[in-house]
Specification:
It is built from no helices and 10 strands. It is mainly beta. The strands form 2 sheets. It has a 6-stranded mixed beta sheet with strand order 2-10-9-4-5-6, with no helix packed on it. Strands 1-3-8-7 form a 4-stranded antiparallel beta sheet, with no helix packed on it. Strand 7 and strand 8 form a beta hairpin. It starts with a strand and ends with a strand.
């Protein structure tokens, strides 16, 4: 059973930075394509960034050149470095395994997520 633990969220000012982490010691992390998703109040959950097992990355247009996804397989951990944060980045951020050659999660079972709040 998958138990993602997202962390690193919090309050940031516009233009500020946060680094999110996602860990799950219970899966063979290195073989999976992984992704970050987010959901703001009243909005659908959306893909933010994906990193494949081969380290290929894909970003939503809204976060390109501001966010960086990375992974550290030895620690079963994935990261999302978020720079130049904007008010529209405020959301609960989740991580999940994504389908191969797709930008969608393998199922609809999610962890707790980590809240990102943007305020001056």
């Amino acid at each position: 059973q998958i138990h993602f633990a997202e962390s690193g969220g919090g309050l940031a000012q516009p233009g500020g930075s946060l680094r999110l982490s996602c860990a799950d010691p219970g899966i063979i992390f290195r073989i999976h394509d992984m992704g970050w998703f987010r959901q703001a109040p009243g909005r659908e959950r959306e893909m933010v960034a994906v990193i494949t097992a081969g380290y290929k990355t894909t970003y939503a247009e809204s976060v390109k050149d501001r966010f960086t996804i990375s992974r550290e397989n030895a620690k079963n951990t994935m990261y999302l470095q978020m720079n130049n944060l904007k008010s529209e980045d405020a959301a609960v951020y989740y991580c999940h395994i994504v389908r191969p050659d797709a930008l969608e999660p393998v199922d609809d079972i999610w962890g707790q997520g980590t809240q990102v709040t943007i305020s001056s």
